[in-house]
Amino acid sequence: MPELPEVEALAQHIREHGVGRTVARVDVASLSVLKTVRPPWTELHGKQVTGAGRHGKFLDLDVEGLHLIIHLARAGWLRWADTLSMVPPKPGKGPLAFRVHLGPPGQGPGFDLTEAGTKKGLAVWIVEDPKEVPGIAALGPDALAVTRDEFAQVMSGHTERLKNALTTQKILAGVGNAYSDEILHMAKLSPFATAGKLTDVQLDRLYESLREILTSAVERSVGQHAARLKGEKRSGLRVHGRTGMPCPVCGDTVREVSFADKAFQYCATCQTGGKPLADRRMSRLLK
C-alpha cells in the first residue's frame, strides 16, 4: 500500500513532469473508481495542471481549480509513461482503471491508475475543494507536519493499541501498515501498547522515530521514477515483510501477527521484552 513517502514522491513527480501540461483526454476504464458525478471528468479536458500535492495518503492534482483526488488504497498504483496509447482502454479489461493524457493522445505523456487483485479500493474524485472528499475532511494532523506537542495530544486519551492509533487516519494522517511497523521497531515499543498510556520518554522515542522513518523514506523516494518506488520502499524496511529473518538490530527472529486481511511484523527482543505477541484475536501477550 502506498503511504505518505510514496504519495509525496508521486506528487513531486507530477510537479516536475506534469505541471504546465494540459489534460488532453481522460479515459475511464472502470466507472466504479470514480466517486463523483459532478463535475464530470470531461470538465478536466483542455485545462492545465497547475499543481500537485498530498493530503495524508491522498494525491491531489490541481487542474485550474478543479482537484483530481486519487487514493491508491491497498493495491492501486500510478504508472507514468512518456507516451500513452491513443486507443481508449476497454472497460473491465485488466488492471487499468483510469488514464490521464497530458498531451495529444499517442504523442504526449500521462499516467495510468491501475489496481491489482480482486479486492478493489482505488478511488478517484473530481471536486472544487479537496475537503469535499470525506476521507480528507476527516484526516488528523499530517504525520510529517505534526509537532511533538500536537503528537502527544492526539495520542493521549486513546485506548487503542499503538499499532492501530498510528494507522488510523483520523488520528494521524499518512502512516500505514509498513511504516508503522518500522516506527514502532525503531522506538522499541510494542504494537499492543496502549496509545494513551505512553510515558513522556516513550512519546519522545515514538515521535523521533516517526520523524526519522518518514523523513528518510521521503528522501529516498523523491526523485525516483514511479516504477521504482515500490522497490525503494521494500529496500528500506527492516522488519515489515521480513517474517522469519533476523532483526537487523539484535539478531532475533522477526515475528508476525496475522489478522483479518493483513499482518504486522515486530521483534520480540527489541519491542516486547522478549515475549512473543499472541495471535491478535487473543488480544494479549503470551505468558
List the helices and strands and how they pair.
Elements: H1 4-17, E1 25-28, E2 49-55, E3 58-63, E4 66-71, E5 76-81, E6 96-101, E7 110-115, E8 123-127, H2 134-137, H3 148-155, H4 162-167, H5 177-187, H6 200-221, H7 229-235, E9 254-259, E10 262-267, H8 268-271
Antiparallel strand pairs: 1-6, 2-3, 3-4, 4-8, 5-7, 6-7, 9-10
Helix pairs in contact: 1-6, 5-6
Could you characterize the architecture of this molecule?
- The chain is built from eight helices and ten strands.
- The protein has two domains: 134 residues, MutM-like, N-terminal (N-terminal domain of MutM-like DNA repair proteins, Alpha-Beta Barrel), CATH 3.20.190.10; 135 residues, Orthogonal Bundle (Helicase, Ruva Protein, domain 3).
- 26% of the residues lie in helices and 20% in strands.
- The strands form three sheets. A four-stranded antiparallel beta sheet has the order 1-6-7-5, with no helix packed on it.
- It is elongated and about 60 Å long.
- The protein is of the alpha+beta class.
